[in-house]
């Protein structure tokens, strides 16, 4: 099972340094294409997407979040920080995968 990151340049670079493949996006068209690419590979078990990127394709992300069990979609803050007051990344991942890290 692989991870896949979609987000801004700094976030994607940080994850790539940890060995997670991803695509940096700047607009809705790029985000939609990256999301499609992530979904094409059945080895991608967890798709990590920044809040800002997810907001660009919110309908598509929410449809998958609420209708599919796999792959798991995890929204994280981007390099610009939290969109609003939210739980920290560790808590989000723990809740998403059901394992305490």
TrEMBL record:
Gene Ontology molecular function, alphabetical: proton-transporting ATPase activity, rotational mechanism
Keywords from the UniProt entry: Ion transport, Transport
Pfam families documented for this protein: ATP-synt_F (PF01990)
Domain of life: Bacteria
Family: Belongs to the V-ATPase F subunit family.
UniProt protein name: V-type ATP synthase subunit F
């Amino acid at each position: 099972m692989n991870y896949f990151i979609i987000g801004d340049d700094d976030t994607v670079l940080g994850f790539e340094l940890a060995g997670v493949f991803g695509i940096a996006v700047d607009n809705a068209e790029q985000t939609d294409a990256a999301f499609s690419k992530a979904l094409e590979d059945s080895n991608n078990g967890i798709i990590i997407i920044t809040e800002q990127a997810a907001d660009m394709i919110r309908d598509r992300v929410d449809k998958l979040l609420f209708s599919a069990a796999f792959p798991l979609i995890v929204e994280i803050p981007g390099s610009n920080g939290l969109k609003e007051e939210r739980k920290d990344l560790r808590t989000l991942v723990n809740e998403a995968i059901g394992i305490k890290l």
